[in-house]
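Researcher: Please predict.
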Amino acid sequence: MTPAALPREEQTRLAIIGLGYVGLPLAVGFGRKLATLGFDINSHRISELQAHRDHTLEVTSDELKATPQLGFTADPNDLRSCNVFIVTVPTPIDDAKRPDLGPLESASRMVGQAIQRGAVVIFESTVYPGATEEVCVPIIERESGLRFNHDFYAGYSPERINPGDKEHRLESIMKVTSGSTPEAADFVDSLYRQIITAGTHKASSMRVAEAAKVIENTQRDLNIALINELALIFDRLGIDTSEVLAAAGTKWNFLPFRPGLVGGHCIGVDPYYLTHKAQQIGYHPEVILSGRRINDGMGSHIAQRVIKHMIQRRLHVANANVLVLGLAFKENCPDLRNTRVVDVVSEFRKFHASVDVHDPWVNQADARHEYGLELVGELENGKYDAIVLAVAHRQFVEMGAEKIRALGKPGCVLFDVKQVLPREAVDDRL
């Protein structure tokens, strides 16, 4: 039997599997051009989208209404009508910081049970180089009985979504594409060029595209780790890190990174996918893992600095009331994935402090489900012994130092993680 032909453009029936921060904007983008089916295992998510609501705030109600070719379903059987599948499920790490490919393997099984001859499966989820062919493709072959690169084809096009960013959107970010054969690569590239106005970059192989994704965020992670380590050093020297960075930043080629908590769905996770694969092939990546250790320790460091100020003021840490402003992993965004603010909370609780967390962007149920945290709503003036401004939500910036301090008792400690308040108005900052 001759190899199956790829779908023609006019025959494309597209399925987006996983409708989170990555999948939904993709579904809306393609839904303006092609017959597109958005699938998610969460039936509540499907009901929400069918009512033209998106709790992630990445897509507006008007945008959802303006995609007549886009449908939503939680029924895997509906995927059988599609001949192109784009998988955008999460690829997290487990408690031991090892890649958790469970969602990706589950999605691959689902595709394998629905796929027909001649179909194309494209993965956008972050993986280590080689994972698409080593993990996903064999599952699809086993479930479908079809042969790879004969009966069906694959592609990899790494997501570059930046949650909460209204300037850098899906369409305006160049897309890396790749395919399992030259013809499949051309098909994948042509498919994305229908919606990506910034253009595409066709990589020579899926492994190259997979590697490009993990090093994008590994590079950023290491740059922030360097600045975080400098902040640790300057704290011991009694030097204000922000002043040092401002002075160094007067040189034209100094990179403007800032210290802080490194969380989110990419930067704090992706390096572990690369180091996992490196260790599989017998190489121990020292620089990458060293950077990860520094960044993963910043939450504890911030809490310890606040505790030091409290002790200097003879404030009892045990049973103290501490307020943490912000839980999301970044400002003006409800995304809780891998937020390292929880490390600050955890460190305070080790000293038996009572910690309140307030975040106007985050859904209470999500905070409870993901981290077992009960967010506080209305804040009470004069209650807290220490306040940590952890996330620079616009609501907190607009409050200003005076109103934030009013939440605390006289002599409370105010720590500014994000350096958004005047230096003279806070007790300490990164």
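Model: The mean pLDDT is 95.
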